Amino acid sequence: MNREDAAAFVAAAGPATRLLGLDLGTRTIGLALSDAGRRIASPLETIKRVKFTPDAARLVEVAGRHAIGGLVIGLPLNMDGSEGPRAQSTRAFVRNLKPILPLPVLLWDERLSTAAVTRTLLEADASRARRGDLVDKLAAAYILQGCLDVLADMAWEDPAPE
C-alpha cells in the first residue's frame, strides 16, 4: 500500500462511512468493522467458507446492513514482500467480488496478523476451541486497525484545506 492508493481509497469510500476488514482464509473469512469515524476496528464475525457465490452473498448482506463504504482486505505477502499463491488467491477473490459488491477495496499487508492474534490469545490463556472461534475475526480487526491507524496519520499530516 502506498499513500496514493490509500488517498484514492479514502476518497472513493466517502466521508463518515464504516469500513469492513476481511481476513480471507481457505476455510473462513474473518470480518471486522470500523466505527463511522474510522478510529476503532471491532471484530464482527467469522464466515465459514462454502463456495464463492454464497460467501459473496453474505458479504453483500453484511455490507448493506452496516452501511459499508469500503473494504480493507488482508493481502498475505511472503516475509520478503513477494506475492505467493495465497496473495494471488486473494487478488482473484477481489476481482470476482468487485462486480457483485462494487465498493472501493484497499489491499493491506497482513504479514504476521494471525500470529500476533494467536500469541495474544495464548497469553490470555484462551482454550484451543475459544482461539479457533476468535482468531479469524480478531485477525480481521488487527488488519483493519493497522489500516485505520495509517489513515489517521495521513489525515493528521495532510489536513484538509480550509
From TrEMBL:
One of its GO terms (biological process) is rRNA 5'-end processing. Gene3D superfamilies: YqgF/RNase H-like domain. Keywords: Cytoplasm, Hydrolase, Nuclease, Ribosome biogenesis. The keyword Plastid does not apply. The keyword ATP-binding does not apply. It is found in: Cytoplasm. This is Putative pre-16S rRNA nuclease. It comes from Methylobacterium oryzihabitans. The gene is ruvX.
